[in-house]
Amino acid sequence: MTTAQPATRPANPRFSSGPCAKIPTYALEKLADAPLGRSHRAAVGKAKLKAAIEETRELLNIPADYRIGIVPASDTGAVEMAMWSMLGARHVEMLAWESFGSGWVTDVVKQLKLDATVKTADYGQIVDFNTVDFNNDVVFTWNGTTSGCRLPNGDAIPADREGITICDATSAAFAQDLPWDKLDVTTFSWQKVMGGEAAHGMIVLSPRAVERLESYTPAWPLPKIFRMTKGGKLIEGIFVGETINTPSMLAVEDYLVALDWARSIGGLKALFARADANAKAIWDFCAQKDWIANLAEDDATRSNTSVCLKFTDDRIKDGATFAKAVAKRLEKEGVALDIGAYRDAPAGLRIWCGATVETADIEALLPWLEWAFEAEIEAQA
Ligand SMILES: Cc1ncc(COP(=O)(O)O)c(C=O)c1O
After folding, report:
1. Tens of pLDDT along 129-143?
2. CA distance 165 to 151
3. How many CB atoms sit inside 10 A of residue 184's CB?
4. 44: how many CB neighbours lie within 10 A of its CB?
5. A GO molecular function for this record (predicted)?
6. Which DSSP state fits 370?
């Protein structure tokens, strides 16, 4: 017997984990104020870039003495410019529990060739932060986008640490509470929780990170797009909108529009609440079903943005083929786009729950998930 299709479809089937769904009120016309065809160094361009920085500070409650810069190459560019500029001054601990964190380990061990201490956890778990010595420099990813496992809080990071913390927070920023006093370098891109465009990254530096930049010169060469100092002094212009190279003013405008939307719905708390409600709808669904479960083993580490799910039904013959077929079936029906697990992650699904996704769309998707699961069980028999 074939299960009937649910009656309602999500109004927006875009559940990709990056680039993520645009803001619910999105329309291209909203970008009309972008100063296209003008220099980004003209007053109008500089004002837009400075607004993007200062409005980010305000929305995320970033302390006044932290520097915020817009940098090239999205989140990857921001993480790598931090690691290349600051690491090597003291021993490094690299923490990873999924693919992106592992990528930063490769950077540090194989490219920078540092003799780092590497601590990893399997997909579904996170590294125990109580085992970390924060007198070393420590690099980690707050929310593992490809495993759906996040650091619940920064309590294990001591305030009086001697090392600096470098945190890839790209799928956490704007959805999860980031303790700025525990983070010396924080990076993210506009394309995740804010539904912005990729290509530009943001880097947030604590005063201690700036001190490191001004007191330490790495042994290796730094390309221009990684250089944040000149003559041993911070290039302050970067942190007021004088970007290292040319940004897309269309992408900047898009981000400003997203920030405006965030303010209009109530700011950071409202963004958090939207992601929480989206993720909770999926968690509650999983709790009622015996064939699907969160990849995160500990509820405290469950992501409220990149929710990763695994199928747990004994009847499934080939997990990877099954999960791909479910995702394909949902895509074909136009009810969920891009929800297959990341290529290096365990077989399953990943449903983005960041603030730009509507809870009603998640709720409309869930019966379809059950429909696709049943259909695939039948199809493989
Ligand atoms: C945790 C994490 N780090 C880094 C990246 C790479 O981001 P970007 O492509 O914006 O550089 C991603 C993208 O999904 C991510 O999830």
Report:
1. 999 999 999 999 999
2. 14
3. 27
4. 13
5. O-phospho-L-serine:2-oxoglutarate aminotransferase activity
6. H
Residue count (the chain):
381
At 249 the pLDDT is 98
Q: Which atom of ligand 1 is nearest to the CA of 144?
A: 1
Q: Which domains does the chain show, CATH number per domain?
A: 37-264 (3.40.640.10), 267-380 (3.90.1150.10)
> Which DSSP string corresponds to 98-146?
SHHHHHHHHIIIIIS----EEEE--TT----GGG--TTSEEEEESEETT
Quote the ligand 1 centre to 172 CA distance (angstroms).
Answer: 11
For residue 147 and ligand 1, the question of a CB distance below 6 A is answered with no
What tens digit of pLDDT does each residue of 180-191 get?
999 999 999 999
137 ligand 1 Cβ < 6 A = no
Question: d(Cα 201, Cα 215) in Å, to the nearest integer?
Answer: 24
| pLDDT > 70? residue 30 | yes
Residues contacting 151, CB < 8 A, separation 6+: 126, 129, 140, 142, 143, 301
Report the mean per-residue pLDDT for the chain: 97
Global confidence as pTM: 0.98
Q: What is the pLDDT of residues 218-234, one digit of tens each?
A: 999 999 999 999 999 99
The Å distance, Cα 189 to ligand 1 centre, comes to 8
CA distances from 35 to 103, 196, 350 (A): 36, 17, 37
Cβ 168 under 6 angstroms from ligand 1: yes
Residue 310: strand, helix, or coil: strand
- Alpha helices per DSSP H over the chain: 43-60, 74-86, 99-106, 207-215, 249-265, 268-288, 319-332, 359-380
Cα of 288 to ligand 1 centre, how many Å? 32
